[in-house]
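Q: Joint fold for the lines below.
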Amino acid sequence: MSNTSQEVLGWERADIALNIALDIPDGSIVNLGIGIPEMVAACIPADREVIFHTENGLLGMGPPPDPDSEDPELINAGKRHITAIQGAAYFHHADSFVMIRGGHIDLCVLGAMEVSENGDLANWSMGSDDAAPAVGGAMDLVAGVENIVVATMHCTRKGRPKLVRSCSYPLTGIGVVRRIYTDLAIMDVSAQSLEVIRLAPGIDFDYVQQRTEAELTIKTA
Amino acid sequence: MINKQHDTPADAVADIFDGATVLIGGFGAAGSPIELIHALIDQGASDLIVVNNNTGSGHVGLAALIEQGRVAKMICSFPRTAGSTVFPDKYQAGEIELELVPQGTLAERIRAGGAGIPAFYTPTSVGTELAQGKETRTFDGREYVMEYGLTADFALIKCLRADRLGNLIYNKTARNFSPVMAMAAKTTIVQADSIVAAGDIDPEVVVTPAVFVNRMVEVGEPLQESAMVASSVSYP
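A: Joint structure:
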């Protein structure tokens, strides 16, 4: 039991989602990836209107339905059952990616295997360890959405840093990540380094740097 | 008189030939034309090149077509959905080829094919291993990758309602790739939950105009792939 306190240092996954949600401006059009990113939708403050896009053809994704009203033909990009809000629109896949590639989506929140200090993202392939490589819409999202933020635990389950000098896994996109939200800190990608803009409660800068291969700096106002 | 209607899925897919390229609609189980796929399994064509976002789940529909050894190559964006073991196993055994395409590039390649555009430039995949060996070009200081339009011999799609002429509407996110696939195939074969009289679909809400549809078959109560996968049904 001695290391229990070690494991709960920093923010929980739900806190990471909340931190992201609180930074999303009223009126934004947002696409959410799988994992922590999909938890963001439920954290949007009630006084903000944020519209969620899912790349399989729906603008205006609502919360999951009650189990007895699930519709097999109403799912999100992660193939989970969803609902559509009042005012939603359905469209085909080419139009959906017109929205993405054409720069019509304001913000995309994605998970990561690795992010480099210049904002390269690796989140689709483990390289040769993959049973069959699968990319989905990740490369289109990072190429087309101006504001890409990453939601991830700071290190892998084995304690390996995910924020690195240069990605070792195959890239999803080069220099695409703007901001990173982890359990330990919130960081902006700048030309020189990852700039820490906020630390989790009880976490100091050195603690985060020790768990980060990329160089960190403190953002000065 | 225009008559695109066939009595059975078997009639509608009877002339799909060995080596054909077949676009199959659906995203996961949503929009999968499962009766048409099962008719294609029964029909026997092999060495198919199949284009779909995924590779099917469980042992029905597209997964069953692959399991029967009828697909030489898959062109898709995400071949390992939850519950999808048939394709990964065959891929690992070297029994099936994979062309992995980013999802938006896949949709646009099909759209371009249907629109008579042989190739286009996209920012997607620049600098990644999926761009290796492809032509690139810089416009306004940004690099783009050239991708080819994709056409096919056949498309198999599912819609909610068709009218007698072949105008289609879909149901929710079951629409996904089907409208662009209908445009890109020489022969587009549609299964519709219902086929109604011309004029019974408001022209303002038609999603796929009839010009893109060649054959239709009514499948009143289509099988639900997700339910079949959940209850471990196998086809045949």
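Q: Anything notable?
A: Chain B touches chain A through 53 residues (CB under 8 Å). The domain at 5-123+134-220 of chain B is CATH 3.40.1080.10 (Glutaconate Coenzyme A-transferase).
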